[in-house]
Design a protein that fits this description.
Number of helices: 13
Largest sheet: 7 strands, mixed
Low-confidence stretches: none
Strand order of the largest sheet: 15-16-17-14-13-19-20
Strand content: 15-25%
Helix content: 25-40%
Mean pLDDT: 97
Bound molecules: nicotinamide-adenine-dinucleotide
Shape: globular
Structural class: alpha/beta
Distance between the termini: 67 Å
Length: 477
């Protein structure tokens, strides 16, 4: 049994009263590690440490901070395999995703933040006439609280912490209670890199240590990746602090009759909803909108492809789809399968769950890939984020109808379009209410492009500019 600790003020410490939470391997249902169950005392200590470290870190020349970030990049290169395996054990995301997709990008991301440090200190000069000069200074906010979800902890941690630190903030990270192990292992590694207090990590429940952290007066900015409901609660606790919110989605994937269907089939099954993290991906293409002329053919081909997906032990590189992260989330996904039946949606495939799905691992939280069809986008299964391997398909006749259906959602995180018509692709990019639109691809989030949502999917994105604020000065000469 591995017992992880918090990182506070450069020291690895258990929660003050020794309380822990179990970390459960979702493929087996067995507890394999323990994490601290921190509370207000740990939030207080972490913010105090971050505040104490702030003056020196913020005053350090930007290129000095970049040297620390490059050390983190090196560390990711050396420990990628270990971190990928930990994360897969902890949250069930298949190893082929964590090892081949998430971790290889991390060293690059920390290098990128190191390379962009000068953006954090660049201001503007405005001539206000012969005798006056205006200028702006970019400054760090101070202490930034980064609250992250369980579905890709290391990459969400990195996307926030790398830029917040590069910009001269000190940071307190709160990983998710369902999957903190990879981030707490990073705490052990990063304790050797940063000066004490610059980066702090406190694990525990959202309503305990999370609330205490975001509501703390010593925290000047909050960055959350999580659900819209949590964002609403944080807004109430944290008050008027500046926020970056990367939230949930119900992303449409629109397949037109002129699309390359061979690629589209893989695009809407393998790369969009069913594999990787069993649909527990914020940008999962959970609503598949299909042009009526290809409706029957595409539904049949999606069913054939989904029927061949390899489910099972996530640490096996041949496995394409793993379990649901926790018993609680499993129950939630199963409740949506029941709801789909109750709402009268038609089941094309799937619907089985529990031990029978992966007999070799009967204790795991397994849900088979499922597809439902309907013509009513108002159904709850079309409107609510399920966060599991459950998609719903709807037919459409015209481009305008596809846009109307796609935008008929409280969310606006991402959208996918499959077409060979360049004009149509551009019209869809223009008209879809989404932070990212993919054309003939899905689930690509390359560093260098902004990633974030519109509507209830949040605002802002993890980039250097979001972790600095601008001050204006006017000088009369
Ligand atoms: P969640 O909102 O339940 O939890 C996210 C984090 O917030 C956790 O660390 C949790 O402990 C913390 N938290 C919960 N309540 C809190 C409170 N009152 N105060 C402070 N912190 C609190 O989300 P989850 O279940 O971990 O992750 C799934 C959600 O995250 C989905 O909605 C998914 O779409 C979203 N997500 C979005 C993105 C994105 O980039 N847009 C990426 C991944 C996940």
């Amino acid at each position: 049994m591995i017992v992880y600790r918090n990182l506070i003020g450069g020291e690895l410490r258990p929660a003050a009263d020794g309380r822990t939470l179990d970390s459960v391997n979702p493929a087996t249902g067995e507890t394999w590690a323990r994490i601290p169950r921190s509370g207000p005392a740990e939030a207080e200590a972490a913010v105090a440490a971050a505040r104490a470290a702030l003056p020196r870190w913020a005053a350090m020349p930007a290129l000095g901070r970049a040297r620390y970030l490059r050390q983190v990049a090196d560390l990711f290169t050396r420990h990628a395999d270990e971190l990928a395996r930990l994360e897969t054990t902890d949250n069930g995301r298949v190893l082929r995703d964590t090892l081949h997709r998430d971790l290889p990008g991390m060293a690059f991301l920390w290098q990128l933040a190191a390379g962009q440090v000068l953006d954090a200190v660049k201001g503007d000069t405005v001539l206000l006439g012969p005798d006056a000069l205006g200028l702006t200074r970019r400054e760090p906010y101070g202490v930034v609280a980064c609250v992250i979800p369980w579905n890709s902890p290391v990459s969400t941690f990195s996307a926030k912490a790398a830029f917040a630190l590069a910009a001269g903030n000190t940071v307190v990270v709160k990983p998710a209670e369902q999957a903190s192990a990879s981030v707490l292992r990073l705490a052990e590694l990063l304790a050797e890199v940063f000066p004490p207090g610059v980066l702090n990590i406190v694990a525990g429940l959202g309503e305990e240590v999370g609330e205490a952290l975001v509501g703390h007066r010593g925290v000047q900015k909050v960055s959350l990746t999580g659900s819209t409901e949590t964002a609403l609660r944080i807004t109430r606790t944290a008050g008027v602090k500046p926020m970056t919110f990367e939230l949930g989605g119900k992303s449409p994937v629109i397949v037109f009759d002129d699309a390359d269907l061979d690629r589209a089939v893989d695009g809407v099954t393998v790369n969009s909803i069913y594999t990787g993290n069993a649909g527990q991906v914020c940008v999962a293409g959970s609503r598949i909108l299909i042009h009526r002329p290809i409706w029957a053919e595409l539904i049949q081909r999606i069913a054939e492809r989904a029927g061949k997906l390899v489910l099972g032990e996530p640490l096996d590189l041949a496995t394409e789809m793993g379990p649901i992260v926790s018993r609680e989330q499993y129950r939630r996904v199963v409740s949506y399968l029941e709801l789909a039946e109750a709402e009268g949606a038609e089941r094309v495939f799937g619907g089985r769950y529990g031990a029978a799905v992966v007999e070799a691992l009967p204790g795991g939280y397994w849900v088979e890939p499922a597809l439902y069809t309907t013509t009513d986008n108002g159904l709850r299964i079309c409107q609510e984020e399920i966060f599991g391997p459950v998609a719903v398909a709807l037919p459409f006749d015209t481009e305008a109808e596809a846009v109307r259906l796609a935008n008929d959602s409280r969310y606006g995180l991402a959208a996918g379009v499959w077409t060979r018509d360049l004009g149509r692709a551009h019209r869809m990019i223009r008209d879809l209410e989404a932070g990212t639109v993919w054309v003939n691809t899905h689930r690509q989030m390359p560093p260098g492009l902004p990633f974030g949502g519109v509507k209830d999917s949040g605002y802002g994105h993890d980039a250097m500019i979001e972790y600095t604020r601008e001050k204006a000065a006017i000088i009369q000469i």
